[in-house]
Automatic annotation (TrEMBL), chain A:
Pfam families: ABC_tran. The keyword Transport applies. Its main location: membrane. One of its GO terms (molecular function) is ATP binding. Keywords: ATP-binding, Cell membrane, Membrane, Nucleotide-binding, Translocase, Transport. Forms a stable energy-coupling factor (ECF) transporter complex composed of 2 membrane-embedded substrate-binding proteins (S component), 2 ATP-binding proteins (A component) and 2 transmembrane proteins (T component). PANTHER family: ENERGY-COUPLING FACTOR TRANSPORTER ATP-BINDING PROTEIN ECFA2 (PTHR43553:SF27), HEAVY METAL TRANSPORTER (PTHR43553). This is Energy-coupling factor transporter ATP-binding protein EcfA2.
From TrEMBL, chain B:
This is Energy-coupling factor transporter transmembrane protein EcfT. Forms a stable energy-coupling factor (ECF) transporter complex composed of 2 membrane-embedded substrate-binding proteins (S component), 2 ATP-binding proteins (A component) and 2 transmembrane proteins (T component). The chain crosses the membrane at residues 28-57, 69-98, 110-128, 241-262. Its main location: membrane.
Length: 290, 264
């Protein structure tokens, strides 16, 4: 499902003293089957942007199309359920949304709301719980007895069980330990590759954005500042710094190393392997000079 | 979604904002009492005039006051209609079956509507111009004499300010959970009454779990910082009773005297 924003503006608290323009004439395109990361300073409009994709927020002006659905500023009430079935949304700290007596029931909540039969919902729930790696021994326990990281997996399973084609992740790794982050991110990366899901991730972690995505959108002041491949976006080091953003640690490291070697160039390398290669290249060059 | 104006504070810089919360609380209390003295056109118009001056001095936008009124408009309307048809006396203006509208009934119902509107306007003005913390501080200071007879005034004030402090947090949390469950296909706004009531469970459970957790965290944080109640505490914001506060009280008392003099 292609996602297109056309001149979308969103104003919070319109006509009150608290009026705030969160999105300002945003136009952008997220191709079907892509992994898109949205980076930006706090308050740059990232969450507001993604909440338009499944109709949780409505634009104050402009229009959004998601596959065949069109969300228009002037449109009165419309049925958003079919859209929400296609577009899953994992909120920040999704473990706060758990409520059922047992884990399996909570995961079934989504599919049942979209009119899936009991047995089918249970089947999907079991599948999703396996995907997120929660052992079957837990399934009939209360979700409130789990650890924070496990609760988050259950909440994510609850979104996966609906079988969306697009998944929005709002800082999915906030508050997790390094191993937890790695596992959650590789789960989504795997889903993206295997099932060709469109994934849109809001993140503060530049390395995650760089490693996993095909497209990075950098937001600033309610507008997309840059929208391109990670290599292209992170080559604008100065611009990113100016709006309170950073580059991945690997690039930081390389730029310091290059400076030591007396070079002023920007190398984009995100994974450990690429970084190692870049270092080897540099060392070879230096050796040739000596 | 949560567009409640009653009880909402709008930070601004005006004479009314700068008044001591104690003088504002006492004046609003007295004002609500003396509203009942007004029983003719002149006295009622005086009350309206007083409100208008208050709004003007607070620099508050009229639309804000109007929003506060809109939520109680139906109550005003019902009392207006009840009085209109039930009050007797005077000449009959209009009758329809057993319903009669008399001149007395008409003036009476207008006066009562004015009374309600005026009360709501001053109380809205109080909360719009005074932050919840200021209100509880003011109350605590006014109730201070009760400490002599071992009433835990400080603890009550603390409880009040904590609950007021967490109202916006809870609203935010509610909105977030509504969104999260809506994203999972839950529907709060349509369907039969039964299905709507059922849709509240996925909202209430996380809300309560979160509230209890937050309360525990807060208690822990307070203990960790050595909080032990009233004894020897100082305040960040001292209350200051200035000449404007005295002026406000004097004008309320004058207004009361004028009302007693002018009413029939």
């Amino acid at each position: 499902m292609d996602i297109t924003f056309e001149h979308v503006t969103h104003v919070y608290g319109q006509k009150t003293p608290f009026e705030k323009k969160a999105l300002n004439d945003v136009s952008l395109h997220i191709p079907s089957g892509s992994f898109t990361s949205i980076i930006g300073h706090t308050g740059s409009g990232k969450s507001t942007l993604v909440q338009h994709i499944n109709g949780l927020l409505k634009p104050s002006a402009g229009r959004i199309s998601v596959g065949d659905f069109v969300i228009d500023a002037n449109q009165k009430k419309q049925d958003l359920k079919p859209l929400r079935e296609k577009v899953g949304y994992v909120f920040q700290y999704p473990e706060h949304q758990l409520f059922e007596e047992t884990i399996i029931k909570d995961v079934c909540f989504g599919p049942m709301n979209f009119g899936v039969s009991d047995s089918e919902a249970t089947k999907r729930a079991e599948e999703s719980l396996q995907l997120v790696g929660l052992p079957a021994a837990y399934w009939h326990r209360s979700p409130f007895d789990l650890s924070g990281g496990q609760m988050r997996r259950v909440a994510i399973a609850g979104v996966l069980a609906v079988r969306p084609q697009v998944i929005i992740l709002d800082e999915p790794t906030a508050g997790l330990d390094p191993r937890g982050r790695e596992e959650i991110l590789s789960l989504f990366s795997d889903l993206h590759k295997r099932l060709n899901l469109t994934i849109i991730m809001v993140t503060h972690n530049m390395s995650d954005a760089a490693i996993y995505s095909d497209q990075v959108i950098a937001m600033d002041g309610g507008k997309p500042l840059l929208a391109d491949t990670p290599e292209e976006v992170f080559s604008h080091v100065e611009l990113l710094r100016k709006v309170g953003l950073d580059v991945p640690e690997t690039m930081e490291f390389l730029s310091k190393l290059l400076k030591k070697a007396g070079k002023q160039q920007v190398v984009t390398a995100f994974t450990l392997d690429d970084t190692a290669d870049a270092v080897i290249d540099l060392l070879n060059e230096v050796k040739d000079h000596v | 979604m949560f567009n409640l104006v009653i009880g909402q504070y709008v930070p601004m810089d005006s004479y009314v904002h700068k008044l001591d919360p104690r003088s504002k609380l006492i004046s609003v209390f007295l004002f609500v009492l003396i509203v009942f003295l007004a029983n003719n056109w002149v006295t009622n118009m005086l009350m309206v005039l007083f409100c208008l001056i208050g709004i003007f001095l607070s620099k508050m936008h009229f639309s804000f006051i109007y929003k506060g009124l809109r939520s109680v408009f139906i109550i005003v309307l019902i009392t207006f209609l009840l009085n209109l048809f039930l009050a007797t006396g005077g000449t009959v203006l209009f009758s329809w079956g057993w319903l009669h509208v008399t001149t007395n009934g008409l003036t009476q119902s207008i006066f009562i509507a004015i009374r309600i509107v005026v009360i709501i306007v001053v109380t809205t003005l109080l909360t719009l111009t005074t932050s919840p913390i200021e209100i509880t501080d003011g109350m605590e200071s006014m109730l201070n004499p009760l400490k002599r007879i071992k009433v835990p005034v400080h603890e009550f004030a603390l409880m009040m300010s904590i609950s007021l402090r967490f109202i916006p947090t809870l609203l935010e949390e509610t909105e977030k959970i509504i969104k999260a469950q809506a994203a999972r296909g839950s529907d709060f706004t349509s369907g039969s009454l039964k299905s709507r009531i059922k849709a509240i469970v996925p909202l209430l459970v996380p809300l309560f779990v979160g509230a209890f957790k937050r309360a525990e965290d807060l208690a822990m944080a307070m203990e960790a910082r050595g909080y032990h109640g009233d004894a020897g505490r100082t305040k960040l914001h001292q209350l200051n009773w200035g000449w404007r506060d005295t002026l406000l009280l004097v004008s309320i008392v004058l207004l009361a005297c004028v009302l007693i003099f002018m009413r029939n």
